[in-house]
Design a protein that fits this description.
Elements lengths: L5 H20 L6 E8 L11 E11 L12 E5 L4 E7 L2 E8 L12 E5 L4 E3 L2 E2 L4 E5 L4 E5 L11 E12 L3 E3 L5 E3 L5 E9 L18 E2 L9 E4 L10 E10 L6 E3 L3 E4 L5 E4 L2
Parallel strand pairs: 1-7, 1-8
Antiparallel strand pairs: 1-4, 2-3, 2-5, 5-6, 9-11, 10-11, 11-16, 12-13, 14-15, 14-17, 17-18, 17-19, 19-20
Pfam family, one: DUF3823
Protein name: DUF3823 domain-containing protein
Organism: Candidatus Ordinivivax streblomastigis
Length: 276
Amino acid sequence: MKKLGLVQYLSLAALMFGTMACEMDNLEAPAAAITGTLYDHNGLPLQIEQGKGAGSIRITELSWLNKEEVVTSQELNVKFDGSYRNDKLFAATYLIHPYKGAFYPLDSVEMKTIVLKNGATAQVDFNVTPYLEVEWASEPEIVTYAEGQHPDGKPAGKYFKAEATFKRVYKTVTNEAGEEVMLPHPSVKGGTLCVGNTHFVSANNRLGDYYSTDISVTNTQEGQTIRFIAKRDVEFSGQEYYLRIGFKSNDTDQKYNYTTVKHISLKTEENVETEE
């Protein structure tokens, strides 16, 4: 039998690779889409962080499941207003549910099975029960401190001040005996003020020199007004600021539940607006 020369061998390998590439190129590109919103116990969009810090939407493809295959779940990021979207999914059947957020985990009954089709967008919303309901106690404002008046001993100047309250939210489920039972609530652990230049402001996206740590908060402070004062003075050089307060519970993931976002514009005059 005649041996192949190096040039012939490389030519044959290139031909085989090209054939395989053509076969792979014939696979249909992902063209199915999914969108939705997480709503809280009051039917309002869930106030959380932008991106992975908020938790995620976990999707697991069911179309190819069998005893010999392991399917890796995907996790879709959630926006600060509880919404999510992905336009590049393969047409298939998926199990989908919110995952690792500042809310009670969903049981199997609350998860959803959906069929995604190419060229179509599936709307899949969820109702979740957050650990905490966080509300503004007053409009955030800029206050002036004379020398020696700042609570943390900071220099004289103008500082952001914001106040909020939290309320623990409880979830009731039906056990195997048909009885309604209340799930345990993780203790409240801390709170923080977030100051940023965009409405995506949160604990993982803020101007850290204004505020970057948590204060200690306990269950006994439920319903009380909790005050936050920035650690540095405000820059008045025509800036736009966005503020938000978050409280977190001492569960495994320790994510924050938040207020809505407030907007303070210093371009023309000091005013505060609520971000819708």
